[in-house]
Amino acid sequence: MFATPLVWGITIAGILALFLLDFLITRRPHEVSMREAVGWSIFYVAIPLLFGVWVWNSGGSTTGLEFYTGYLVEKSLSVDNLFVFMLLLSSFAVPRPLQQRVLLIGVAGALVLRAIFIALGAVMIAKFSITFLVFGIILAITAVKVWRDAVGESNHTDVQNMAVVKLINRFVPVTSGYHGTKMLAIEKGRRAATPLLVATLAILAVDILFAVDSVPAVYGITGDPYLVFATNAFALLGLRALYFVLEGVLNKLVHLGHGLAIILGFIAVKLVLHWAHTVWPAVPTVPTLLSLAVIVGVLGVVTITSILATRTQRGHARSEA
Q: CB under 8 Å to 22, separation ≥6 — which residues?
């Protein structure tokens, strides 16, 4: 663990500054153009890539590899999470100019939740080596769920059945329409929640599930809480802009779920082996370089197969027409 308290402080200050920049960008609701979304997405990818160079020089090649591998895992998971965000924003019919405000609040909530999970995970790992086994089991279960979702064996999230939505509708009246960026508004003489508040709380509720998946996943790459926090933060910060870039592209990555299930399963095995190694030193562990190679390879394969599958579907559609 190479990060000093000063490095921690500078990193957190930098993350907060980038979040403030995002807040200023979304202060005035507007529809995000593809050019704007691509520009900010490139910016938010360039920052962690450059940051990784500093990590590599400061902590050594192993630490640098752990950062890049962890960031790649977290970014892949965040892309998959965008499917759920799209479903939520569509279900609540959030106007396009307001979507990035909801996404930004969701990112803020995710940062806070993951910071809590990271701190708890670090304490548990420091005191109990069996935590690696617990994390491995969590990821294995998640991998099975992601695979079932990918092959259509389980239903997508039903927004109306979400506990947070039911709770709000039961105890707080909801306005019939949106009132700009207001979370609460006066309608029929009484204060009521707007659909924007309901959509935002639904996003925050989903953030909890995402934290349960993502934090154990990156702990499978590195045990350094600083790298775990940095990879999560950088993956989340660019999520708002990336949403608008991938809004139409994600539907073409038809095999992304399969790839993420394989990656999560692989990391689950790695965590279990790491736990077994602490109990029986003869049990081999998975090197970081091999982890990076597997993750990049799986993502590359599913991207190619998704493109081929999409082209085949288009060909069949044209022939039938």
A: 104, 107, 237, 240
Question: What's the token pair of residue 7?
Answer: 């490095």
pTM of the model: 0.74
CA 172, chain centre distance (Å) = 30
| pLDDT on residue 102 | 83
Cβ pair 163, 175 in contact under 8 A: no
Interatomic CA distance for residues 318 and 321, integer angstroms? 5
Q: Which amino acid is at 71?
A: Y
pLDDT greater than 80 at residue 5: yes
Burial class for 56, CB neighbours closer than 10 Å (0-12, 13-18, 19+) = middle
Distances 156 to 98, 161, 309, 318 between C-alpha atoms, Å:
24, 11, 22, 29
Question: Which helix or strand (DSSP H or E) is residue 185 part of?
Answer: strand 184-187
Torsion of CA 307, 43, 87, 154, to 10 degrees: 50
Tens digit of each residue's pLDDT (9 = 90 or more) over 122-154? 788 777 778 888 878 877 887 887 788 777 654
Contact 70, 224 (CB under 8 A): no
Alpha carbon distance 279, 275 (integer Å): 7
d(CA 39, CA 119): 33
| Angle, helix 239-246 to helix 61-91, in steps of 10 degrees | 60
pLDDT category of residue 169 using cuts at 50, 70 and 90: low
Whole-angstrom Cα distance, residue 304 to residue 38? 22
DSSP 101-140: HHHHHHHHHHHHHHHHHHHHHHHHHHH-TTHHHHHHHHHH
